Fold these 4 entries.
Entry 1:
Amino acid sequence: MALKKTQEIDNLGIEGNYHRVVQFNINFDSNDTVVTFQMYKNKATRDAGKNPTSQQIQREMKNRVINKEVIYQGETLSLLQVLKKLSYIALKEWATEEAAKQVDDTTKDNEVAFFVDATDEL
């Protein structure tokens, strides 16, 4: 998904019309959300794996994104709540994988494996 609108990069004569979210950062404690958009010449350029133009927009979205309500597994939750829940689920799944590795496995991440038996605190 992207936004389509033609834009020229100032003083360069380069145009693009495909604006895509490329980075999304959330500070869960302060509810700060920063979203970075980059412009590609067009969708075909993006689909071909080409680099975006130098045009980049980074904006603080405050509560415009994370407080939007979504339905997740039958519950109405804010996007922030869903992202937190999914982050904990993913960490616990990863911890299970890491804990299953042999002690002498040099790829084992013990800091992640630590959470293998963590319980959910609501």
Note: The CA atoms of residues 27 and 33 lie 7 Å apart.
Entry 2:
Amino acid sequence: MEISELLDRIHFLPYPDRGLEIMLYRWRSDGTYLKAALIYLQEECHGYLPYFCFLTLEGKSLFHLIQEKVASDEQFPLTKVCLKANLKRTLELDLTYLEIGWMREWRNACRPNTWEEAKASLYRAASLHDNYQSGTIFLDCTLVVIAEKLLAENMELFNKWKAHIEDFDFSKEPDAQVCRREYMDILSHFSIANFDIDLFWYKYAVKMNKWNDKMVARNQLRQTDESQQLEEYRSKYRRLEELCGSVDGGIDGMVQNLLLTAKCESYWMTNEPENKC
């Protein structure tokens, strides 16, 4: 069946949240079904949302069905869009009464977390999800979706702190560095992962590292300047000690003489000549 004909039938279903399941049972890996499914999920995610919490009519996991019916090169983009369509509204609505075990862990991973906390939730979700005959596609794609969510959050915070630093508020540099390190930790996971994140995140990492190089150079220069300034003060102090060697009381006596001289000069400038020192 052509996808256009199938979409017309799905449109008139009393339960449109079963639309993706119907597509999967009729799936053709010629690109047309994938393109239609991606558009359908993005446009009809309001109908898809409750479906995400359930098994298929045959009792299979949705993601197992994707692995069974869809060509390997189409599985990742389809699963990723399924998860992304659900990500935002998963947190907006209270669906705890619909949850099964793996769904609860997926929701935990969607909430604000560190990368390590999110990974722990996703591995637990995958372990529970295996009871529903799921393979690795679920775990691989959830890791990518949550990673890109956290990368976006850290990038936004990093830009916020960087703007403060550019306005000479250097107290925000530690905050920016925390975001940068978390960002890099997330990227490092995908050096050995089965699926990769979007290239955009790697490009932005280059910008982060260039910024970090500038901060390191600035801090080294500041430390050098401070050391040079301290050494200059020490040199001037030693010279002052040498000059004061012949003055009674040593350097303390010299300081007292300087203070008295300054006091007389100030008095001279503000009083009549006959009252001058």
Note: The radius of gyration is 34 Å.
Entry 3:
Amino acid sequence: MSPLALYELFKESTGNLAFLHGTLLIASTYQALRRGVPLPTACYYHSALTIRQVNASLESYEGQISEGTLATIACLVIYESAVGPTTSAVHIDGLEALVNFRRNRSHILVGYLEKLVEWYVRNRS
């Protein structure tokens, strides 16, 4: 990711509580995997808060089509793929359904969300 794209990612994450926790989830998971140590408590904490926030945002139409919700689900997919690929199928299906839902309503993926989803698709295997 370029420095500008990374800046945009963190700028967006600080404005959306669910995406903030999703971003922190990926960061803490990455650090643990990179060091070869067990996942810290922070991973489970941010995972629980991320899922709670996503569930709350999916209750409204605006939440279902928001880029923050999609980006947060993408964070969950990345996390689950890293720690246990068999558990990510539900969130992959949900992400795909929401992307199609947005497409059908002429909402276009832009900016950081498009890059995040494209990055996951390229690196999931």
Note: The CA atoms of residues 61 and 123 lie 30 Å apart.
Entry 4:
Amino acid sequence: MTAYVPVRQAYEETCESILAEWLGDHLPVSNLWHGFSANHCPEPYLDFAAADHSAMWVTHNPGRGEDFQLRGSVDEQWSPIRSDISYSENAKRLASGYAGYGALKISAAARARVAGMKHLAAQLGFAGLRQIELFPLHSENRPPDDFLFGNPDLAEPLRSYGTKARELIAASPMVIGLCGSAPDASGKAVGSWSKALALNLERAECVTLSRGTGPPTVGMFVNRSGPRVSVLFCRQGSNGLPAKDLMPMVTERIRAALSDRV
């Protein structure tokens, strides 16, 4: 497994460059998908509890932009985003607001997902929690796969972002992804997500979490490779976590994989 700290630093440097270009209104938009918003502050990652010993959650990209993220809102009292601090510090301020401490406007589903991520990370014994995006720009709808899993022809620093993000994911000791499709190992979505998470589907345990006799709609893949554990939650039609009553079993399965690390 690639050394984690230098890979993390390279990723964070790219994120700082993206923020600086956006603040200066120089972020290149050529070849971007029309659904991305260049007017809302990029949000490549959030630190809900910054620590070296962190669980990493991966989602596809920031959702719909809100007014407090607009360029004209930066440095205003109602926005946590500041132009005179690093993206690293802004990521902590944003995460605090999303977790409920700053009363930032986000959907109930997103706030519940944040609470669930924090709770599971704590249950697994991780002191920190970082959520990173496969692409850093906001959009109301899901972006095309090429921007999430491919290498689109973009100008720097956006060109480097996907590569740096995937390198960080592959180097991280604990990674959890959220996929909005059924837990079908032969499906396109699961295949794309498993590659993004560096999760070996052939060696992964598939745990069905949905009830009933039909094809499963909720489940997870758990893969342990040496000191690294990767998990992909699959929930058809939603990128949320499994139902609360299933989380104790989920936690035990992941704990077992963590305890078996070598």
Note: The first strand starts at residue 36 and ends at 37.
